[in-house]
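User: Need the bound-state model for coenzyme A:
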Amino acid sequence: MSGLSEFPTLASSLVRLRQLGYKDIPVITRLVTGGVVRYLMNVPYPYEMLDAKRFIDKSRRNFKTKKELNFAIEFVSTWTLVGIISLHKIDQISNSGQISYWLGQNYWNMGIATESIRLVIQYAFNVLRLHKIYANVFDSNKASVRVLEKNHLRKEGELIDSVFKQNRYHNILLYYRLNYK
Ligand SMILES: CC(C)(COP(=O)(O)OP(=O)(O)OC[C@H]1O[C@@H](n2cnc3c(N)ncnc32)[C@H](O)[C@@H]1OP(=O)(O)O)[C@@H](O)C(=O)NCCC(=O)NCCS
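Assistant: Bound-state model below.
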């Protein structure tokens, strides 16, 4: 990540991924519903304006130290923020990073996550030169597994009863992809 001074913008005909700003706080707060949070490991619910502000502040700090890039996902046909995708836990010794993402429920099943993940992986491999990207998913989250597999991530393992959420333990599937370039 040496030389990364400006926050990148990544774009295709479907989505634009850009830096988050305080103006996004009300939209993020509206989009983070119970139906979204049930699949996320570390996001509180109810999700308040202050949670969004803290997330944006943390994003700025961790971008400066090159530990993470948290992108607003904008849907090109409306130019509105519809979700967030993160490349985080960037390890500059092992050259690895984790991807995480969510979309507001009204925007599911339109190909937006698949395309956003594709852009972030392309950036992580071709520009940041990371060697490995990975993602952790609840085993019940079939849509998330599907978007990872569509982006050629493979299952690496499974952590049994590793997260307690909504009154039960969940198995976590580990997915990864290596940069062979
Ligand atoms: C997971 C999530 C990001 C997917 O985003 P999305 O933009 O709807 O994904 P896409 O439209 O690109 O692709 C969804 C794929 O999953 C499939 N899918 C959706 N629901 C499914 C289900 N219940 N079972 C199996 N496949 C399913 C779709 O058919 C599609 O596959 P296809 O293109 O082969 O038809 C979105 O559902 C979400 O934000 N969920 C809540 C938060 C979350 O789970 N984040 C990930 C944590 S690891």
